[in-house]
Amino acid sequence: MKSKWSKAEIWEWYNARPWISGFNFIPSGAIEGIVYMLQEYDHENAFRDAAKEIALAASLNFNSVRVFLPFYLWRVQHESFLKNLDELLDLLDSYNMTMMPVIFNDCCVPKNHYKEPELGPQPEPEPGYFGGSSVTPFDDDTQGGGVIGYNIIDEPEMEVVAEGYVRELARRYRDDKRILIWNVWNEIGNSGRLSLSVPMMEKVFSWFREEDVSQPLTADVWGAGADHPYGWLNNPGIYHECEEKAIELSDIITYQFYGDYEHARQYIEKVGKYERPLINTEWMHRPYRSIIQTHMPLWKKNNIGSYFFGFVNGKSQFNYVWEFIKKLPDIDTRLWMHDIFYDDFRPYDQEEIETIKECNKNI
User: Fold this and answer.
1) Which of 23, 25, 129, 20 is nearest to 68 (CA)?
2) In this predicted structure, what is the pLDDT of residue 267?
3) Phi, psi of 194 (to 5 degrees)
4) Angle at the Cα of 283 (from 132 to 181), degrees rounded to 5?
5) How far apart are CA 187 and CA 86, in angstroms?
6) Which of 139, 221, 246, 277 sees the fewest Cβ atoms within 10 Å?
7) How would DSSP label each residue in 55-117?
8) Could you tell me which CATH number the domain at 7-359 has?
9) Boundaries of every domain in the chain
10) Which of these, 111, 37, 52, 72, lies nearest to 344 by C-alpha position?
């Protein structure tokens, strides 16, 4: 569709589908799990292990996953990246699951800490750190605005490369039912960037539309410009013009909220005023009191699509809380922040699994 979908069109599309229930899929076998699975090195073993996790998800009747596609891998291992991505899409399709690919992302480290993903054998994680590394966009400086995160497509010469990436994905998958939605931009304005990525975000939307993709487009809102964590957790809403632009461009409203039940209801009211279908693309944060038992039934009751963060705990160490909240007095760091299974597929909390089964029944 070469223009933004009308409200009638997007509601017709949304209502024709079962309730969207999934999670952010990052294979547990490496810090950069999706790079590990899609790279050439040891791909057969990495894919086999990831396939076990997808089979586990299918046993709980999940019907979609959100995946951060590695732009770097497309650039340096182009043919195998596309081949391996198709293999993953085929695997998902065999379980009647779809993918929401994430194209670009503002959750990033400062330029002096930036490096491309490691290929080949993967590094071991640093114990105790979310993401498996002490170099993180979730430190006090980056989340407090003291430094600005860096994106490789900030470089002027990268625009033509980014355009080639987007247009190739669009042409290859524009009518592919395995792709549910294109998540054009994750967390616009994060890492102190605010409006820095808006011009590029607008171009990416236009490139997808020019290629006439059949799937809807979206960019997440998440609290850019708010005082984090409590200004956002206790008074969720749209704080910055970069998020207003994301909503203006999006066919369907995707948002992220890790707060408690009452404030989650408030955010539903705030984003519901745009009168488009809603999908929460990141939630479930036990120390913030965003939990499966309360929130998943809330999303289903309100017909809000759901992708919680994480799945099987592994080398990305998503059980640890972000650095910038570790010293807050009301954060219980003994609780896992994300993930619902240990690496041997034992549930972290069996009650969570029972809630998931009940919510995913008959979808």
Assistant:
1) 25
2) 97
3) 50, -110
4) 100
5) 26
6) 139
7) HHHHHTT--EEEEE--HHHHHHSHHHHHHHHHHHHHHHHHTT-EEEEEEEE----BGGG--PP
8) 3.20.20.80
9) 7-359
10) 52
* CA 107 to centroid of chain Cα atoms: 11
Dihedrals phi, psi of 24, to nearest 5 degrees: -80, 115
Tens of pLDDT along the chain (363 residues) come to 689 999 999 999 999 999 999 999 999 999 999 999 999 999 999 999 999 999 999 999 999 999 999 999 999 999 999 999 999 999 999 999 999 999 999 999 999 999 999 999 999 999 999 999 999 999 999 998 899 999 999 999 999 999 999 999 999 999 999 999 999 999 999 999 999 999 999 999 999 999 999 999 999 999 999 999 999 999 999 999 999 999 999 999 999 999 999 999 999 999 999 999 999 999 999 999 999 999 999 999 999 999 999 999 999 999 999 999 999 999 999 999 999 999 999 999 999 999 999 999 999
CA atoms within 13 A on the CB side of 172: 14
Give every CB contact of residue 324 below 8 A, 6+ residues apart in sequence.
138, 139, 140, 142, 143, 144, 228, 229
CA distance 216 to 180: 8
Cα–Cα distance measured from residue 325 to residue 270, given in angstroms and rounded to the nearest whole number: 25
Question: For residue 103, what are its two tokens?
Answer: 């194209």
Q: What is the structure's pLDDT at 2?
A: 86
CA distances for 227 relative to 231, 236, 259, 292, 323, angstroms: 4, 10, 14, 25, 16
